[in-house]
Amino acid sequence: MLANTGKLAGCTLFITGASRGIGKAIALKAAKDGANIVIAAKTGVPHRTLPGTIYTAAEEIEAAGGKALPCIVNVIEEDQIIAAVDQAVQKFGGIDILVNNASAISLTGTLETPMKKVDLMMSANTRGTYLTSKICLPYLRKSKIGHILNISPPINLNPIWFKNHCAYTISKYGMSMCVLGMSEEFKGEVAVNALWPQTAIYTSAMDMLGGAGVEKQCRKTDILADAAYCILTKPKNYTGNFVIDEKLLREEGITNFDAYAVAPGHPLLPDFFLDVDPESLAMTMEAQGASPTFREGKKQDVVKNKVPDKTKAEGPDGAKPGVHFAAESATGPVTQTFKIIKGAITEDVVKSTQGLYRFELSGEEGGTWYIDLKNKGGSAGSGDPPGKVDVVMSMSSSDFVKMFSGKLKPTMAFMSGKLTIKGDMALAIKLEKLMGQFSAKL
């Protein structure tokens, strides 16, 4: 791992979202040099599910050798940012470094993303970065160090990074566009760069999105903290760069990255927005065989079943025209999977989940299937779900079987484009957590 050099001793860092995760890791790395850290984050009282507050982060920073100033800051609130900057200048005499880390995420499609969430992502990610930079810049221009670091990706215009979560992508690219513009506007006065991870980083957000076991395919926040430290200790003429953590650290002489892995030896999830085609990368990872999550598994004997075309007549249960049914009498892997899922459903599962899921499957045993974890004792099978659907998942029938048997991680399927999700993402995550119970019986 990258050793501290003491170059940030006495420097003041204003870090948004520093109460936990990546922001806190960057703060702790700088604190080892004896830096001053302004913890600009929303969490003043313990969150019901997420760890840490600005005050617990302050205790850790001071224990690591730094000085801390915890400030309640929601980056969409201009008055809160101004107040925190004023406090920082009064206490520490100025601001040398700004890290725009605070960010909101919703990995949902255009029709499934409420405008409230769109506004939050645009306000927190793009506007929040722009606004915090604007307020800090007069002090950064006076500093000998003068640096802005945005935790945002290189701008990749491959449509695959837009099609599944257009609003989120636009909001993150807005942060990156701030780097493009401000690095030129303030060249020679303030360095402005972006940092992004090569692989998924294990944080509270990743735990929520990926579900149980996802940490084995992630790196620790330490790798971003080391990369950020490397950037922030460079001279002002190092500006306008979109840095990938692993690449930079290799250039700095780091060769063993096992220290950064949560579970050394496991394949790592690629992060969003990088140039590697996610579909090809997913196939490569599955072929590695280093983890059950990505292992291809033994090929199952597939019985080819003809799916009757119901586009011109109603189905057997009064289903609407246009619905395709997979034969219930079939003995293929999808049918068997649904039978096992149906047998595993309990009243407690239905009561705790309260979600109705429709699956649009292609390929062998393709058609419409459902899992009802909302009505009475629950059910599962082919055809239209019995009521208003909360979540629609589309994928191939072979990938469906892999996912429910534990051979394909839902996060990996989603990131690679193998799985598309429409509807309530919170309920989608609930179903993923239940997959462990189902896969034990498959």
UniProtKB/TrEMBL annotation:
Output the superkingdom of the source species. Answer: Eukaryota
One Pfam family for this entry, by name? SCP2
The record's listing under InterPro entries reads: HSDL2 (IPR051935), NAD(P)-bd_dom_sf (IPR036291), SCP2_sterol-bd_dom (IPR003033), SCP2_sterol-bd_dom_sf (IPR036527), SDR_fam (IPR002347)
Q: Which residues form a coiled coil?
A: none
According to its UniProt record, where is this protein mainly located? mitochondrion
- Give all residue intervals belonging to the SCP2 domain: 346-435
Record key words, sorted: Mitochondrion, NADP, Oxidoreductase, Peroxisome
- Where does this protein reside within or beyond the cell? Mitochondrion; Peroxisome
Question: Which family is this protein grouped under?
Answer: Belongs to the short-chain dehydrogenases/reductases (SDR) family.
Protein name per Swiss-Prot or TrEMBL: Hydroxysteroid dehydrogenase-like protein 2
User: Organism, per UniProt?
Assistant: Pogona vitticeps (central bearded dragon)
Organismal lineage: Eukaryota, Metazoa, Chordata, Craniata, Vertebrata
